[in-house]
Specification:
Order of helices and strands: EEHHHEEEEEEEEHH
CATH class of the domain at 5-114 and 162-186: Alpha Beta
Largest sheet: 5 strands, antiparallel
Strand order of the largest sheet: 2-1-5-4-3
CATH architecture of the domain at 5-114 and 162-186: 2-Layer Sandwich
Length: 196
């Protein structure tokens, strides 16, 4: 597995001030040729987040880091149709109300069978969690993509599943309550608890 790290700094208006690591490589690998660093620098991070729940969670996590001057760490998944990818996101306070986001690739596994590529479609009946990559089909529970009994939907509306929303809320509450936020506080990558 190739070590990969993406990092960026935002100000208190969430404007991208500095971008480093494998940002461009990651953008191109995920079909985001219009999201290369030169294209997004000085724009708001929040405008590049597709769904409102994830946008709101990202803003809340950054704001509590600013307020408490403590780092927040949380695991998440960012899969491709062929790879299950686990990341650790660390959000750290900086001077002048700036915040550093660091995304470390921790583990990569090939799916036994590749999925068809999916795309975001606002209002799609099928939902995909932007934090653990689980899918919710109509009249079904949230399910990790590798456990789906039906094909992965081609069009999904991104959001946060209840489990990931709870993990994020717990991590934020830990900082507000003066507890350190680490892996034991944030509790894994998703419904299967892959990170121990």
């Amino acid at each position: 597995m190739k070590f990969q790290q993406v990092y960026f700094v935002v100000d208190d208006a969430f404007r991208l001030l500095w971008i480093g690591g494998e940002w461009d490589e990651s953008a191109l690998a995920n079909g985001g040729s219009d999201a290369r660093s030169n294209e997004v620098l000085s724009t708001s991070l929040l405008t590049h987040i597709t769904d409102e729940p994830t946008r709101r969670a990202t803003q809340t996590m950054a704001e509590v880091v600013q307020q408490t001057q403590q780092a927040l760490r949380i695991g998440y998944r960012c899969d491709s149709p062929t790879l299950k990818r686990r990341y650790l996101m660390t959000i750290q306070p900086m001077k002048d109300n700036r915040v550093l986001f660091v995304h470390d690739l921790r583990d990569v596994q090939s799916f036994p069978t590749s999925f068809s590529p999916w795309r975001h479609e606002a209002g799609a009946a099928e939902l995909k969690c932007s934090f653990c990559c689980s899918v919710r089909l109509p009249d079904a529970d949230w399910t990790p993509p590798e456990s789906l009994t039906a094909p992965h939907p081609e069009a999904v509306d991104f959001t946060l599943c209840p489990n990931c929303e709870t993990r994020i809320n717990e991590a934020v509450a830990a900082l507000r309550d003066g507890r350190k936020s680490g892996l034991s506080t944030t509790g894994g990558y998703g419904p299967e608890g892959e990170l121990t």
